[in-house]
């Protein structure tokens, strides 16, 4: 019994030591972090959209050439970096407030006897997603460069406003449709360590959104419908500050 008792005590001591070593080793090999970021968003939507109303000639064809805009965006992030010999492997979740607004005006007709004006507005609000990273530490410098791949989703709203001078009172009609779109975004970034807790990050992403196939029947209140497709690509340039937990 004494030998059994000693064996159990020795086993317990070894197990507790192994757990302690694994815990400290895991702590030294990685860390969690939180932070915020702000930057510029450049968008390039294009597509072909058909606008319909209840007139005898019900279809207005709108062929949108690429139209772009630059807007500010901001948000929060959090993630985990696991240290490896060449640098780190990481995963990051993020939320971005991206109040982008794209507008394009198109006029049909001779501009004297009649004119139909079409304004297209594409609004982008919120984005959130997850990013995987692989980074390399620069020799003898508190810097890291990394490549990334993100999967995200963003909310969009597409609106067409039509004003037809041939109709009595210059009738106006509009069609609107909203949807969340998924995107895949490759990127590249840079980390600079300020101290043992704080780091600055620079990040670039190019986002490929899924094609938006628009199928909306006429709305009774707005007297208009939409159909067609929209192709959206945008780029983000971000600077952020992270805090190691």
Structure characterization notes:
This protein has 245 residues and is mainly β. The chain has one domain (31-244): Porin (Beta Barrel). It contains 1 helix and 10 strands. An 8-stranded antiparallel barrel has the order 1-3-4-5-6-7-8-10. A hairpin with a 4-residue loop joins strand 7 (172-193) and strand 8 (198-209). 26% of the residues are buried. The model is unreliable at 7-27 and 55-65 (pLDDT under 50).
Counting DSSP H or I runs of 4 or more residues, the number of helices is 1
Per the CATH scheme, the topology name is Porin
Number of strands: 10
Radius of gyration: 27 Å
Q: From the 3D coordinates, which CATH architecture would you assign?
A: Beta Barrel
Strand numbers in spatial order across the main sheet: 1-3-4-5-6-7-8-10
Q: Roughly what percent helix? A: 10-25%
How would you characterize the largest beta sheet? Answer: 8 strands, antiparallel, barrel
What is the H-and-E element order?
Answer: HEEEEEEEEEE
The general outline is: elongated
Instruction: State the domain count.
Output: 1
Q: In whole angstroms, how far apart are the ends? A: 47 Å
Strand content: over 45%
> Which spans of ≥5 residues are poorly predicted at pLDDT below 50?
7-27, 55-65
Return the CATH class. Mainly Beta
Structural class by SSE content: mainly beta
Mean of all residue-level pLDDT scores? 76
